[in-house]
Amino acid sequence: PQLIVTATDTTICRGSNTYLNAIGANNYQLTPQSSLAYPFQDTTLAAPTTTTTYTLIGIINSCYDTAYITINVISPPIPVINYNGFILVSNLNGTIQWNLNGNPLTGETNDSLWVMQNGQNTVTYTDTNGCTSLSNAINVTNTGIAEYSYSELNVYPNPMTEESVIELPYSMDG
User: Cα–Cα distance between 122 and 79 in angstroms, integer?
Assistant: First the structure.
């Protein structure tokens, strides 16, 4: 037999998959089997975690043939977040997205983030191939200032976003 093995994609991102399709025989065996859904069928789903060369053995009328296909796996670097006061900084720049509690923060695509809310902060990095990686979470719990009640001074809102109001019991006029 003359075996042919093809893939829907020969380059995938880590965590993705591709279909392998074999033709030219009656019975098939693909190896290594650990990342294959159905290693003994003519079509199977492959989900390798590293670049892998698959070997296809095909049998027809007691004759054997072998074919090979390599699936390249792209693993982008994983961003690391440095935390300094109220500023988070990613060690990677380029196409990044900051997230709070698993949700993207609208417009936050720079390599640094001024923290405005408590919660789990992560950054998603996307490489030039469209592959993504996610940083470990940094839990921020110290935004805002402690509530302070003084009968002659009021500061609000707390926590503040862009502006705050300070009320004094006396006039500032000279």
Answer: 9
